[in-house]
Amino acid sequence: MSDITERMAQTASAMVAGGKGILAIDESLGTIKKRFDTIGLDSTEENRRAYRELLITAPGSEEFISGMILFDETIRQKTGDGTPFPAVMIEKGIMPGIKVDTGAKDLAGHPGEKVTEGLDGLRERLAEYRELGARFAKWRAVITIGDHIPTDACIDANAHALARYAGLCQEAGIVPMVEPEVLMDADNDIDTCYGITEKTLKTVFQALYSQSVAVEYTILKTNMVISGKQCPQQAGVQEVADKTVRCLLNTVPAALPGIVFLSGGQSAQLATAHLNAMNQSHDNLPWPLSFSYGRALQEPCLKIWSGKSDNVRPAQTTLLHREKCNSLASLGRYSEMLEQAA
After folding, report:
1. Taking the domains of the chain in order of start, what are their residue ranges?
2. Which of 85, 149, 166, 279 qualifies as a cystine partner to 213, CB 3.0-4.6 A?
3. pLDDT in tens, 136-154
């Protein structure tokens, strides 16, 4: 094993170490503005920096968080005392990651569907991010459920982009987090989500194979198999857990070091409960199942902070609570009683 592959193997293993998950703080400028709008705060660079500092420096988070996904602006920012964010994270034993795609754009000839862009110049950007401290990267593809969509063309285009991105990451010695997200915004039932998630994951892993990506140095970030938000019949926690695990067993190679879930718009507690049910009900899986949540970890903390420096500590305490709950869920040891004690 070369030094580069050994380093990637160590990084991938550490990302999904027992009881640990990933905190996603890689919101684009447009998305973080929407988050700040909910608390009536202007999305200035200083406000974004202060908020990310709150998240990165939360005391004790290293017990539950193995890595954080940063945005291009964030990886270049510093704490109030002038320490670069990646240096703070590394000192705490938390690995810096970086979102490298440039967003989902309309797929030509396919109304209602998106393809993620960002491959142009990616080799050079990855080299720079590596120098800035990044040990892993993330690329998100979105698959929309709707009338006669997703099409094969959309799934194929996104899988191909994910695979090319992953190949460039491994060339740079950076672990790729591959994120195909089947959105939960429509009125579809859970079985529709199952079928599309299964097809998407099969296509993605075939594309990774075609591009000579080593899955043993790759992390999958994906959606749970879940009812659409507008579906009148919402599947229960155990059904979500069972169908998600079955879908993964049918599609994901055993050589993959681990799988982390996105929350995808679920409430904070529901995302935790689903993850816990998977780990509590299914033993001896070929890979650990953990979390890479953004909103489901941040939202309660953001509301408490509300842009006020006096609220930093209470907000960090709330963040730590959610991190601990999801850490326990990744081990199948979470209980709703923990929410009442908070």
Report:
1. 3-334
2. 166
3. 999 999 999 999 999 999 9
